[in-house]
Write a structure and sequence with these properties.
Shape: elongated
Structural class: alpha+beta
Oligomer: single chain
Number of helices: 3
Radius of gyration: 58 Å
Distance between the termini: 173 Å
Length: about 210
């Protein structure tokens, strides 16, 4: 018995229904959609990156402006401080000059009474040697008081005092056993001239003769 012959149109229809392969047009549409999505994602990433860069640039600019402002402020403070230091230096120098002038003025004022006493003594026509001596002694005492008020102190060593090179100046030496009374070596035999201190510093050493 012969097999039944199928209708060729029916075979084509069945073949089309059984074919599950993707349609070419659908593949193209799907690929295009993917490419568009990728392009959008890349655009978004580039936009976000540019946005971040713009924000960083703004922040850097703001930081630079603040640093520049702080630098100008510190520079202004430095200039003001320098000007103030210059003013202090000038005031100090002027005060030192004024102090020196006032010190000389005070010393001169203290000397005036001594000069007055000497002039008064010279005006006396008739006076004995004792009166002259007494007048000179009073004037010398007055002068020494003036020295003390001005910070001058007398260096007046005594015989047999130990020689002090910080206060005394030896003008000569003698054998201490040949003088009366005997003076030990390194001690003062006689004082030729008094010395003076001024504000704790030796203004003039006392001139002395020292035993060898």
């Amino acid at each position: 018995m012969n097999p039944t012959k199928k209708d060729p149109y029916q075979e084509v229809s069945e073949s089309l229904e059984s074919d599950t392969s993707p349609i070419v047009g659908s593949n193209i549409d799907s690929a295009s959609s993917k490419n568009i999505n990728n392009d959008e994602n890349e655009f978004i990433e580039v936009t976000q990156d540019n946005t971040h860069k713009s924000v960083d640039t703004v922040e850097d600019s703001s930081t630079f402006s603040k640093l520049e402002s702080d630098l100008l402020t510190e520079k202004d403070k430095s200039l003001r401080l320098q000007a103030e230091l210059d003013n202090v230096r000038k005031r100090s120098s002027q005060e030192v000059l004024n102090a020196g002038k006032f010190a000389i003025e005070d010393f001169a004022l203290n000397l005036l009474p001594v000069a007055d006493s000497l002039e008064a003594a010279l005006e006396l026509k008739e006076q004995s040697s004792e009166q002259l001596k007494s007048g000179v002694e009073l004037t010398l005492k007055q002068l020494e008081q003036t020295f003390e008020r001005s910070g001058l102190k007398i260096i007046n060593p005594k015989v047999s005092d130990k020689f002090d090179p910080n206060q005394h100046q030896a003008v000569s030496t003698l054998n201490g056993e040949e003088v009366d009374p005997i003076v030990s070596s390194g001690h003062i035999i006689s004082v030729l001239q008094k010395g003076y201190f001024l504000a704790g510093r030796v203004l003039r050493p006392a001139l002395v003769v020292v035993a060898a």
